Amino acid sequence: MMTDSARQFGLAGLTGLFLPLCFPDFNLGWLAWIALAPLHLALDGAAPRRALWLGWLAGFLAFTGIMSWVVTAMHQYGKMPLIASYPVMWLLAAYLGLYVGLYAAGFAWLARREASTQARRVPAWAPLGAPCLWVTLELVRAHFLSGLPWMLLGYSQYQWLPIIQIADITSVYGVSFLIVLANVAFAGLILWAWRRFRLQQATAFPWPAPAATALVLIASLAYGQAALSHASGSDDQPSLAVGLAPFAL
Prior knowledge:
The chain is mainly alpha-helical. Helix content is 66%, strand content 0%. The protein contains eleven helices and no strands. The protein has helices at 4-18, 32-35, 37-42, 48-66, 69-77, 82-116, 129-143, 161-164, 167-170, 172-198, 208-233. Helix 5 (69-77) runs antiparallel to helix 6. The protein is globular and about 60 Å long. It starts with a helix and ends in a 16-residue tail after the last helix.
């Protein structure tokens, strides 16, 4: 039987393996909507310090896969020896993984605050702060130390045109917000089902996160479809043909 630590780090590692698949060259953008769920399952009951390491592991593995092109760039174009290119890439992945670690630690802190209010029957609003934390850290990563905005989570949806139209209002961070919100809701539903039907624990349905996900997703898709329809309709506007006739001097 797996120990709690092995289960937690295994789930975190699963998120680290899933995230690179959401971007080119794999292009499994749909996977982004559930890729963070294993990490959130691993964070269930974890202290913020443990959560920091779980998140860092997920981030390190993810950025190792996402940033593997750095090895090619340094070796072929920077003329760096191949044996030295890999440690440099791993250092970069370790640094970028810290942002996922900080997110995980913040999420664990929010979850603990939520747990302390359960006796007062306070609804599970705390997970709604998770997307805000993720987007804040993406903003910091995109600007701190001249910025490393590569492969922000919202970029994974570049093939799903209706959902990315909100970027003209929110930039890519709005898409990232929605993806993280969906992951938090999905993980919360899994934990609720596990406790209710497998452990026979009477727990309240975690409705705020799924309800917020459904509302924001519907609104984003409606906006996206309207924007795409408007763009295609503009192609039907009357046009003026202009031609040039040759003439001899």
